[in-house]
Amino acid sequence: MKDEHSAPPEVDHYGSQYSNFDSAVLAAVRREAFGEDYGQNSWQSADEQELFIEELSIDARLRVLDVACGSGGPALRLAERTGASVVGIDLHEHGIATAQRTASSRGLEARAEFQRVDASGTLPFEPGSFDAVLCIDAINHLQNRASVLAEFRRVLRPRGRLLYTDPVVVTGCVASEEFRIRSSIGPFFYFPRGENERLLQSAGFEVVAVHDRTENLATAALRWRNARAARADDLRKIEGEANFEGQQRFFEVAARLAAERRLSRLCFVARA
Protein backbone atom coordinates (compact mmCIF):
# COMPACT_ATOMS: atom_id res chain seq x y z
CA MET A 1 0.00 0.00 0.00
CA LYS A 2 1.44 3.35 -0.98
CA ASP A 3 1.04 6.79 0.54
CA GLU A 4 -0.31 9.12 -2.13
CA HIS A 5 1.64 12.05 -0.64
CA SER A 6 5.06 10.40 -0.97
CA ALA A 7 7.54 10.54 -3.84
CA PRO A 8 7.13 7.90 -6.55
CA PRO A 9 8.88 4.61 -5.71
CA GLU A 10 12.18 3.80 -7.34
CA VAL A 11 10.82 0.37 -8.32
CA ASP A 12 7.18 -0.03 -9.33
CA HIS A 13 6.52 -3.33 -7.61
CA TYR A 14 2.88 -2.81 -6.64
CA GLY A 15 1.82 -1.16 -9.88
CA SER A 16 3.32 -3.89 -12.05
CA GLN A 17 1.89 -6.63 -9.83
CA TYR A 18 -1.66 -5.30 -9.58
CA SER A 19 -1.92 -4.11 -13.18
CA ASN A 20 -1.01 -7.58 -14.45
CA PHE A 21 -2.31 -9.70 -11.58
CA ASP A 22 -4.33 -12.09 -13.74
CA SER A 23 -1.43 -12.88 -16.08
CA ALA A 24 -0.38 -16.53 -16.29
CA VAL A 25 3.28 -15.76 -15.62
CA LEU A 26 2.60 -13.89 -12.36
CA ALA A 27 0.26 -16.66 -11.21
CA ALA A 28 3.03 -19.19 -11.92
CA VAL A 29 5.51 -17.10 -9.92
CA ARG A 30 3.12 -16.96 -6.94
CA ARG A 31 2.57 -20.73 -7.04
CA GLU A 32 6.30 -21.38 -7.05
CA ALA A 33 7.06 -18.79 -4.38
CA PHE A 34 4.33 -19.84 -1.94
CA GLY A 35 3.26 -23.34 -2.93
CA GLU A 36 -0.31 -22.06 -3.37
CA ASP A 37 -1.48 -19.06 -5.37
CA TYR A 38 -4.42 -17.42 -3.63
CA GLY A 39 -3.69 -13.93 -4.93
CA GLN A 40 -1.25 -12.81 -2.25
CA ASN A 41 1.31 -10.05 -2.67
CA SER A 42 2.83 -10.13 0.80
CA TRP A 43 5.14 -12.65 2.46
CA GLN A 44 2.16 -14.65 3.75
CA SER A 45 1.77 -18.30 2.78
CA ALA A 46 -1.50 -20.20 3.03
CA ASP A 47 -0.19 -22.12 6.05
CA GLU A 48 0.72 -18.90 7.79
CA GLN A 49 -2.72 -17.42 7.14
CA GLU A 50 -4.20 -20.47 8.86
CA LEU A 51 -2.09 -19.68 11.93
CA PHE A 52 -3.29 -16.08 11.92
CA ILE A 53 -6.94 -17.17 11.58
CA GLU A 54 -6.49 -19.45 14.58
CA GLU A 55 -4.71 -16.73 16.56
CA LEU A 56 -7.69 -14.40 16.09
CA SER A 57 -10.33 -17.15 16.47
CA ILE A 58 -12.03 -15.94 13.29
CA ASP A 59 -15.34 -17.61 12.46
CA ALA A 60 -18.62 -16.82 10.71
CA ARG A 61 -19.80 -14.58 13.56
CA LEU A 62 -17.05 -12.00 13.09
CA ARG A 63 -16.55 -8.91 10.95
CA VAL A 64 -12.91 -8.42 9.93
CA LEU A 65 -11.04 -5.42 8.52
CA ASP A 66 -8.12 -6.30 6.23
CA VAL A 67 -5.90 -3.23 6.00
CA ALA A 68 -3.76 -2.94 2.84
CA CYS A 69 -5.58 -5.87 1.28
CA GLY A 70 -3.88 -5.51 -2.13
CA SER A 71 -5.68 -7.51 -4.80
CA GLY A 72 -7.92 -9.10 -2.17
CA GLY A 73 -6.77 -12.71 -2.44
CA PRO A 74 -6.06 -13.27 1.28
CA ALA A 75 -9.31 -11.51 2.30
CA LEU A 76 -11.34 -13.69 -0.08
CA ARG A 77 -9.62 -16.86 1.13
CA LEU A 78 -10.36 -15.85 4.72
CA ALA A 79 -14.04 -15.23 3.92
CA GLU A 80 -14.34 -18.59 2.13
CA ARG A 81 -12.61 -20.62 4.84
CA THR A 82 -14.20 -19.04 7.92
CA GLY A 83 -17.53 -17.60 6.74
CA ALA A 84 -16.56 -14.25 8.29
CA SER A 85 -17.58 -10.92 6.78
CA VAL A 86 -14.48 -9.12 5.50
CA VAL A 87 -13.88 -5.51 4.48
CA GLY A 88 -10.63 -4.97 2.59
CA ILE A 89 -9.08 -1.54 2.11
CA ASP A 90 -6.11 -0.44 0.03
CA LEU A 91 -4.93 2.74 -1.68
CA HIS A 92 -3.94 1.10 -4.96
CA GLU A 93 -6.80 1.42 -7.44
CA HIS A 94 -5.71 -1.55 -9.58
CA GLY A 95 -5.52 -3.75 -6.49
CA ILE A 96 -9.03 -2.79 -5.37
CA ALA A 97 -10.43 -3.23 -8.89
CA THR A 98 -8.95 -6.74 -9.04
CA ALA A 99 -10.35 -7.57 -5.60
CA GLN A 100 -13.85 -6.39 -6.52
CA ARG A 101 -13.79 -8.28 -9.81
CA THR A 102 -12.59 -11.48 -8.16
CA ALA A 103 -15.17 -11.26 -5.36
CA SER A 104 -17.92 -10.92 -7.97
CA SER A 105 -16.65 -13.83 -10.06
CA ARG A 106 -16.55 -16.08 -6.99
CA GLY A 107 -19.96 -15.02 -5.66
CA LEU A 108 -18.53 -13.50 -2.48
CA GLU A 109 -19.86 -9.92 -2.73
CA ALA A 110 -22.15 -10.47 0.27
CA ARG A 111 -19.23 -11.38 2.55
CA ALA A 112 -16.26 -9.52 1.03
CA GLU A 113 -16.33 -5.77 0.37
CA PHE A 114 -13.41 -3.73 -0.94
CA GLN A 115 -12.83 0.02 -0.72
CA ARG A 116 -10.07 2.37 -1.86
CA VAL A 117 -8.86 3.99 1.37
CA ASP A 118 -5.63 5.59 2.57
CA ALA A 119 -5.03 3.66 5.79
CA SER A 120 -2.50 6.21 7.03
CA GLY A 121 -5.39 8.61 7.71
CA THR A 122 -8.79 8.47 9.40
CA LEU A 123 -10.63 5.26 8.53
CA PRO A 124 -14.18 5.70 7.14
CA PHE A 125 -15.81 3.44 9.73
CA GLU A 126 -17.76 4.00 12.92
CA PRO A 127 -16.18 3.17 16.30
CA GLY A 128 -16.49 -0.51 17.20
CA SER A 129 -17.26 -1.59 13.62
CA PHE A 130 -15.02 -4.68 13.62
CA ASP A 131 -14.26 -7.74 15.71
CA ALA A 132 -10.75 -8.11 14.30
CA VAL A 133 -8.25 -6.06 12.30
CA LEU A 134 -5.53 -7.59 10.13
CA CYS A 135 -2.63 -5.79 8.48
CA ILE A 136 -0.13 -8.13 6.84
CA ASP A 137 3.30 -6.84 5.79
CA ALA A 138 2.06 -3.31 5.16
CA ILE A 139 2.13 -1.26 8.37
CA ASN A 140 5.73 -0.39 7.53
CA HIS A 141 4.40 1.65 4.57
CA LEU A 142 2.05 3.79 6.68
CA GLN A 143 3.05 7.13 8.17
CA ASN A 144 2.44 8.05 11.82
CA ARG A 145 2.21 4.57 13.31
CA ALA A 146 0.90 5.90 16.61
CA SER A 147 -2.07 7.46 14.79
CA VAL A 148 -2.57 4.36 12.64
CA LEU A 149 -2.72 2.14 15.73
CA ALA A 150 -5.12 4.56 17.42
CA GLU A 151 -7.44 4.26 14.40
CA PHE A 152 -7.23 0.45 14.56
CA ARG A 153 -8.19 0.70 18.24
CA ARG A 154 -11.10 3.05 17.47
CA VAL A 155 -12.74 0.80 14.87
CA LEU A 156 -12.41 -2.34 17.03
CA ARG A 157 -15.15 -3.35 19.39
CA PRO A 158 -14.20 -3.76 23.08
CA ARG A 159 -11.98 -6.85 23.46
CA GLY A 160 -11.59 -7.03 19.69
CA ARG A 161 -8.24 -8.24 18.39
CA LEU A 162 -5.54 -6.79 16.16
CA LEU A 163 -2.92 -8.83 14.30
CA TYR A 164 -0.27 -7.24 12.14
CA THR A 165 3.15 -8.14 10.80
CA ASP A 166 6.01 -5.67 10.63
CA PRO A 167 8.51 -7.18 8.16
CA VAL A 168 11.32 -4.65 8.72
CA VAL A 169 11.98 -4.52 12.47
CA VAL A 170 15.61 -3.50 12.87
CA THR A 171 17.46 -6.27 14.71
CA GLY A 172 21.01 -5.86 13.37
CA CYS A 173 23.37 -3.71 11.36
CA VAL A 174 21.97 -2.64 7.98
CA ALA A 175 24.04 -0.69 5.45
CA SER A 176 22.61 2.47 3.87
CA GLU A 177 22.58 0.84 0.41
CA GLU A 178 20.67 -2.15 1.81
CA PHE A 179 18.11 0.20 3.34
CA ARG A 180 17.79 1.98 -0.01
CA ILE A 181 17.14 -1.22 -1.95
CA ARG A 182 14.81 -2.64 0.71
CA SER A 183 12.82 0.62 0.53
CA SER A 184 12.92 0.95 -3.27
CA ILE A 185 9.29 -0.21 -3.78
CA GLY A 186 7.70 2.61 -1.78
CA PRO A 187 7.80 4.56 1.50
CA PHE A 188 9.18 2.55 4.44
CA PHE A 189 9.22 3.32 8.15
CA TYR A 190 11.69 1.30 10.24
CA PHE A 191 11.44 0.73 13.99
CA PRO A 192 13.77 -1.00 16.46
CA ARG A 193 12.65 -4.02 18.42
CA GLY A 194 10.40 -3.03 21.30
CA GLU A 195 8.97 0.10 19.68
CA ASN A 196 5.87 -1.64 18.27
CA GLU A 197 5.00 -2.95 21.72
CA ARG A 198 5.39 0.52 23.23
CA LEU A 199 3.19 2.12 20.56
CA LEU A 200 0.52 -0.56 20.92
CA GLN A 201 0.32 0.02 24.66
CA SER A 202 0.20 3.79 24.15
CA ALA A 203 -2.75 3.31 21.77
CA GLY A 204 -4.66 1.42 24.46
CA PHE A 205 -3.94 -2.15 23.38
CA GLU A 206 -2.94 -5.08 25.52
CA VAL A 207 -0.11 -6.96 23.78
CA VAL A 208 -1.15 -10.63 23.78
CA ALA A 209 1.72 -12.20 21.83
CA VAL A 210 4.71 -11.45 19.60
CA HIS A 211 5.76 -14.13 17.12
CA ASP A 212 8.91 -14.19 15.03
CA ARG A 213 7.98 -14.94 11.40
CA THR A 214 11.32 -13.91 9.87
CA GLU A 215 12.07 -17.33 8.44
CA ASN A 216 8.87 -17.22 6.40
CA LEU A 217 9.98 -13.95 4.79
CA ALA A 218 13.49 -15.21 4.04
CA THR A 219 12.13 -18.33 2.35
CA ALA A 220 9.37 -16.58 0.40
CA ALA A 221 11.62 -13.75 -0.82
CA LEU A 222 14.28 -16.12 -2.14
CA ARG A 223 11.75 -18.40 -3.81
CA TRP A 224 9.97 -15.37 -5.29
CA ARG A 225 13.24 -14.05 -6.73
CA ASN A 226 14.19 -17.43 -8.17
CA ALA A 227 10.72 -18.02 -9.66
CA ARG A 228 10.96 -14.64 -11.37
CA ALA A 229 14.47 -15.35 -12.63
CA ALA A 230 13.23 -18.55 -14.29
CA ARG A 231 10.65 -16.49 -16.19
CA ALA A 232 12.81 -13.44 -16.81
CA ASP A 233 12.05 -13.04 -20.52
CA ASP A 234 8.29 -13.05 -20.03
CA LEU A 235 8.48 -10.70 -17.05
CA ARG A 236 10.73 -8.23 -18.84
CA LYS A 237 8.05 -7.91 -21.52
CA ILE A 238 5.47 -7.02 -18.86
CA GLU A 239 7.58 -4.93 -16.50
CA GLY A 240 10.38 -3.50 -18.62
CA GLU A 241 14.08 -4.17 -18.13
CA ALA A 242 14.77 -1.61 -15.40
CA ASN A 243 11.73 -2.50 -13.30
CA PHE A 244 12.40 -6.23 -13.61
CA GLU A 245 16.00 -5.83 -12.45
CA GLY A 246 14.97 -3.46 -9.65
CA GLN A 247 12.49 -5.97 -8.28
CA GLN A 248 15.10 -8.74 -8.46
CA ARG A 249 17.48 -6.64 -6.35
CA PHE A 250 14.66 -5.92 -3.91
CA PHE A 251 13.85 -9.62 -3.41
CA GLU A 252 17.53 -10.55 -3.11
CA VAL A 253 18.22 -7.96 -0.41
CA ALA A 254 14.95 -8.73 1.43
CA ALA A 255 15.88 -12.42 1.54
CA ARG A 256 19.44 -11.79 2.72
CA LEU A 257 18.52 -9.31 5.47
CA ALA A 258 15.89 -11.70 6.80
CA ALA A 259 18.11 -14.80 6.57
CA GLU A 260 20.82 -12.97 8.50
CA ARG A 261 18.27 -11.64 11.03
CA ARG A 262 19.31 -8.05 10.50
CA LEU A 263 15.74 -7.05 9.58
CA SER A 264 13.14 -9.25 11.27
CA ARG A 265 9.50 -9.92 10.48
CA LEU A 266 7.51 -9.92 13.70
CA CYS A 267 3.83 -10.65 14.19
CA PHE A 268 2.05 -8.65 16.88
CA VAL A 269 -1.23 -9.80 18.42
CA ALA A 270 -3.06 -7.31 20.65
CA ARG A 271 -6.43 -6.91 22.33
CA ALA A 272 -8.45 -3.68 22.49
What distinguishing features does this structure have?
11 helices; single chain; about 270 residues; alpha/beta; globular; about 20% strand
Q: Helix content range of the residues, please?
A: 40-55%
Sheet having the most strands = 8 strands, mixed
| Helix and strand sequence | HHHEHEHEEHEHEHEHHHE
| Strand tally | 8
* Mean pLDDT across residues: 95
Distance between the termini: 24 Å
Total number of helices: 11
Please tell me about this protein's structure.
- The two termini are 24 Å apart.
- Helix 2 (24-34) packs antiparallel against helix 9 (214-229), helix 9 packs antiparallel against helix 11 (241-259) and helix 10 crosses helix 11.
- 44% of the residues lie in helices and 20% in strands.
- The model is unreliable at 1-6 (pLDDT under 50).
- With 272 residues, the protein is an alpha/beta fold.
- Helix 5 links the parallel strand 2 and strand 3.
Topology readout:
Layout: H1 13-19, H2 24-34, H3 46-56, E1 63-67, H4 73-82, E2 85-90, H5 93-105, E3 112-116, E4 130-135, H6 145-155, E5 156-170, H7 176-182, E6 191-192, H8 195-202, E7 206-212, H9 214-229, H10 232-239, H11 241-259, E8 263-271
Parallel strand pairs: 1-2, 1-4, 2-3, 4-5, 5-6
Antiparallel strand pairs: 5-8, 7-8
Helix pairs in contact: 2-9, 9-11, 10-11
